[in-house]
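user: Here is a favour to ask of a fellow structure person. I have my own habits and do not want them to colour yours. Could you put it straight underneath, so I can go through it closely?

assistant:
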Amino acid sequence: MLEYVHSGSGSPTYVLMNGAGVTLEGWRPLYPGIERLGTVFAWNRQGLGRSARPRSRQTGALVVASLRELLAYAGLAPPYVLVGHSLGGLHANLFARLHPAEVAGVALIEATHPDDCGRLREHEGRLAGVLARLLAVPAAWLRPNLHAELACALDTARQVEAAGPFPPVPLVVVSGGQTPPRWLMSPEALELKQARQRALAALSPLGEQVIAQASGHFPQRTQPELVLDVLRRLADSVTSARGAAV
């Protein structure tokens, strides 16, 4: 069983991909505005929300396969605009490489770069506490799923590296502009993260980066109007790219 929410109508179809340990509720501040932009599909991976507990390790390849099956079940045909936050951005990166013909555009919001994955497990406990405060839920609720998902992050990063090239589709990378506390990220680590965010934007010749100056790791919560504007402009870019290809 997989939990999902299908709303809005028309083109494009936005597919929302959650961060590690975070349910589809993390996208709530974008509603109802995002539903006026097109069709919206948000879902919970196995082990999140009311979705069934996983019976096997949820590497990116398995997550992408589950999502494609669920989209078909919901009657939503490609191409899609993938919107991935944090670890969901890593999954979106993999989806676009494995199935480029099914992807019209990609928005990566504070997305995990493949080279970030080695450090994720080191900060798992702190991350659970930060997410608990942001989402106003007990950290104990988050830890099991967060642990299980981060345990697969390195495997997913390897799958990204082994997959084909990122397709030349419209791409927007939204990066938080606020400086995290030093206990969470040293100045050297922050500089490296910023470089990797720029590298994500360079994956496509149609890529760009937007800095959410008033946000940290959750721009969709702290600056939802900015994210909605990014998604609106991304849809325009998708339409223009299609017109140029005809």
About this structure: The beta strands are 4-8, 13-17, 39-43, 80-85, 103-109, 171-176, 207-212. DSSP finds nine helices and seven strands in the chain. The chain has a mean pLDDT of 89.
